[in-house]
Amino acid sequence: MALPQLENRAARRLFLHRHGLADAPSGPGRGGDLHRLIHDLGFVQLDSINTVARAHDLILFARRPAYRPGNLKRLYEQERQLFEHWTHDAAMIPMEFYPHWRLRFERDRALLRDRWKTWRRDGFEAQFQPVLDHIRDHGPVCSSDVGTDEKKGSGGWWDWHPSKTALEYLWRSGTLTVTGRSGFQKFYDLTERVIDAPHRDARPDPQATVDWLCNAAMDRLGFATSGELAAFWDTASPSETKAWCAAGLEKGNLIEMEFVCADGAPRRCLARPDVVEQAMAAPDPTGRLRVLSPFDPALRDRKRAERLFGFHYRIEVFTPADKRKYGYYVFPLLERDRLVGRIDMKAHRDRDRLVVTALWPEKGVRWGSARQARLEAELSRICRLADVSEVVFRDGWLRDTGPLP
């Protein structure tokens, strides 16, 4: 019997809709509207690189052009509607999800104790009580407030001194909570001072949390393999996710289906029984061109993005300059249901300008006057986020990607 199948454009339409990239960007981008957006996405990944704007700010701006960085800071640090922890990386997460991070705390507590003994130096466990006593007596601290007489190793930024390692461990295992950031430096406080009792005291059963994680991942992905479900939050194990999928198939909560990849090959995965109807009901993505963060939720699974959109992306921050194919930090460009190119640009705030070094259209994309007008309109909006006034295109910025088909 043939499996239900989504053709490629229907699959892309559903996926973009679930990631808030189908409708034209709109909304106030603050308060309850911003909280609902982050809830719908699941989380927003944090990243320190700021060539134009930080990743979390650009992720939110791509969906809410009225958004400004202070709106997230207010929601997080003042209103306590978000907490900071890890999914596949550091992220801002809706506070109502906090009880399900109990499982993450427990697993990080065991995993990191052994791993960090190997990766770093011995001695960080001896700093647990001194660090906690210092915070209890003096309030929130950053890493420079503790361990001032300790020596850091020679291994670079990742080779923390013991008290910094203790802070990170106590945060990752739930004893401490990050209360905010100055620049990109974290401040830590006792969890009981930060997280309200209803969230802090809730203790979901581990299986209830696994069920929640898998359901929440499926709701946001639309269709997925068990591996993609496990990777979404990076907390449930592959074996737990496979067991959840098997139970869902047996109960009729899930079905096997296929979607057609950008190269025409079918790929088998799992979905809700009404996935075809969901895809047909999803709106056609807006024609507005928009700049995406390399860490946008729609792109962070690079293999999935390549299967769906035929878009191969590799961040080249850690690639030597002479070996980069594109650039240090290149932004994908989304238009309707296609990723139509990538752009290398940087905000030079000291010169009050956004400088475009290069743009590479995807193969088969014609960069005509109408598309250029859409790009310039988007870059004008980006200027407001980046706090600069004008866009400057360097000579030779439009790069040739080969003949059109």
Question: Main traits of this protein?
Answer:
alpha+beta, four-stranded mixed β-sheet, globular, five-stranded mixed β-sheet
Task: Explain what the structure shows.
It contains 15 helices and 14 strands. The protein is α+β, with helices and mostly antiparallel strands and 405 residues long. Helix content is 39%, strand content 18%. 36% of the residues are buried. The radius of gyration is 23 Å and the shape is globular. The strands form four sheets. It has a five-stranded mixed sheet with strand order 10-11-12-13-14.
Average pLDDT rating: 94
Give the DSSP E fraction (strand runs of 2 or more residues).
Answer: 15-25%
Q: Give the total of beta strands.
A: 14
How large is the radius of gyration? 23 Å
Major β-sheet strand ordering: 10-11-12-13-14
Q: Which structural class best describes the helix and strand composition?
A: alpha+beta
How many strands, which pairing sense, and closed or not: the largest β-sheet? 5 strands, mixed
**What pattern of helices and strands is seen along the backbone?**
EHHEHHEEHHHEEHHHEHHEEHEHEEEHE
Helix content: 25-40%
Number of helices: 15
- End-to-end C-alpha gap: 37 Å
Shape, per Cα inertia axes: globular
Can you tell me the residue ranges where pLDDT is under 50 for at least 5 consecutive residues? none
